[in-house]
Amino acid sequence: MRLEPIPAPGPARRFGLPALALAATAALGSLLALIAGAEPFGVLGLIAKGAFGSKFALLETLNRATPLIFTGLAVAVAFRARLWNIGAEAQLYAGALMAVLIGAGTPAISGPFLLPFMALAAMLAGALLLLGPALLKTRLGVDEVVTTLLLNFIMLLFVSMLLEGPLKDPMGMGWPKSEALAREARLPRIVEGLRLHWGFGLALIAALLVWLLQSRTTLGFEMRAVGENSAAARYAGMPVERTIALTALLSGGLAALAGFSEVSGLKGNLTLDLSPGFGYAGVIVAMLALLHPLGVVLSALFVAGVFVGADSMSRAAGVPTYIADILLAAALLFMSLAILLTRFRVARD
Amino acid sequence: MEILDILLSATFWAAAVRIATPLIFATMGELICERAGVLNLGIEGIMAMGAFTGWIAVYAGADLWAGVGAAFLAGMLFGLLHGVLTAPFGLSQHVVGLGITLLASAVAAFAYRVSLPQVTNPPKIEPFQAVAPALADFPILGPALFAQTPLTWAAFAVAGLTAFVLWRTPLGLAVRAAGESPEAVAAQGLSVNGLRIGAVMVGSGLMAVGGAFLTLSAFSSFFFEMVNGRGWVCIALVVFGAWRPGKALLGALLFAAFDALQVRLQQTPMGADIPYQIFLMAPYALSILALVVMSRRAAAPAALMIPWRKGER
């Protein structure tokens, strides 16, 4: 077989195939439900209901989507420039660590500057954490996939060390968790009485800013050009190494905001289970969004919905929650194939 | 000197060879994939899938070797998916590989929960036993060679076989050419994508056997997250070994020796003063360091990560 480019794909192809990919994901979900001994279509309904079916469910989904928007943006920005940042998990923890270092107990600064300072420090930590692998890539040709992945493990152990050492809450009954953040170090709720914090608002703003950066600025253009063809970009006189370094700073900073937002908006302290893999799920979020920053918001809501819905479905129908992870990984593969086939037709040799 | 005592102890060398075993299988698997031109980031998930499949087969009553076979087949299945998506369809090897890792880990976890809904303590199976316990009393090298299970010996055999097939047979030449200059392979009338799919399937099968070693020989139970980054370490080992089976084998043994050393250093008086996390970080940091040191000399296959499309260059 070989792939023939389609000069002008029609709307049936452009929208039908992605829809088919989602339908295939749903079909797989029914099959898995059947294997787990549950009623196949009921399970899909329960997931949807658990994700969007009530005010409580919807708020839970928005809360879960918040870190996913940040990590999804981080991955989208990096992948667009072909910087394979798989280390959003580590950068998230770097951000969370800064939030706790500055905001826990009695913060050294107070007043309206505390929260912005925490956010900036978090971004800086995440940015620097990715700058290392990015420089190793551009200077020495060390593959950043492996270095960022390995840094995830190193970072988690580093956080574990601090939580059992200097950052350990003396009142924590021996649990490895940090002291709670001061009241003024907590992100306020968007609407009083509704369980949704400003981290979500910040995530939306971040998506908008990234979109503006990518579509309206020279740097955004350079990032895309480097990703599409770095040799051509170099030939056109673009500073390829500098662009990759700046991309790394932005991507790492965005992922770190996920950690800041989770600690300061939701949890109020740092534990080792702060992130159930938000960094890795960010890859799925970004790919389902076709690396578009505004699409990231939608796809983060979808991915969060599947996770939250599967939790609630699992309690009702007894199908293991891991069904969510299978469906999202499958959606990633189905969608990648579908998008390819919108532009190419399979022909026989 | 404590380090010297450790290095001279027989159990240390036995542990190093044991720790190296899953890495050898999976590193050879990754090496075969990359030699054919396909970076297989599915490795971490495929190892988890192999660990589960091997374990559940034996738990259900299969022979231990049948468990290894089941793991190999499960790995081949995910390899087929990876190969088809990345070779003929030419999708991004990064995206597909990560997708396969997420998919295979999730399938293993889901299948475990569905087959054993009520267990809290992971059930155990009767694992592989030492090859020749009687000979293990030989000083120093006795335990390192004979206190090992047959799977460890199989790992060394697989490393030798990988080197032999890749460099001494026409098939191996074709596989390497698919990763170096696919147009030459096509000019010979061979199918580049067919070779790549086959290499990824066999390589993924070996990764899964590496995972199965964890449940069938090392731990005798299945745990979530038991692969714990070993797959990513193996990708670093392939680079460290400059895509050569012999050097990669040596790298796996060195890495494992270092890992065995850090575990033992933790228990020394000096080690007790240092947070244990520092020791646990060391293997990952060492992998990064190895990549940096080898970066200038690394000779990756020329067509690695480049999809082959007939008529294009």
Structure description:
The complex is a heterodimer of chains A (349) and B (313). Chain A is an all-alpha fold and 349 residues long. Chain A has helices at 11-35, 40-52, 55-80, 88-103, 114-140, 144-164, 198-216, 218-228, 230-235, 240-267, 278-288, 293-317, 322-343, and strands at 2-5, 344-347. In chain A, 72% of the residues lie in helices and 2% in strands. Chain B is mostly helical and 313 residues long. The model of chain B has no long low-confidence stretch (mean pLDDT 91). At the A-B interface, α6, α11 and α13 of A face α5, α11 and α14 of B.
| DSSP E strands of chain B, number | 0
Q: Mean pLDDT of chain B, rounded to whole units?
A: 91
Strand percent estimate of chain A: under 5%
CATH architecture classification name of chain B: Orthogonal Bundle
**Approximate shape of chain B:** globular
Structural class of chain B: mainly alpha
Computed structural class of chain A: mainly alpha
Mean pLDDT of chain A: 94
* SSE pattern of chain B: HHHHHHHHHHHHHH
What Rg of chain A do the Cα atoms give? 21 Å
How many strand units of chain A?
2
Task: Give the helix level of chain A as a range of percent.
Answer: over 70%
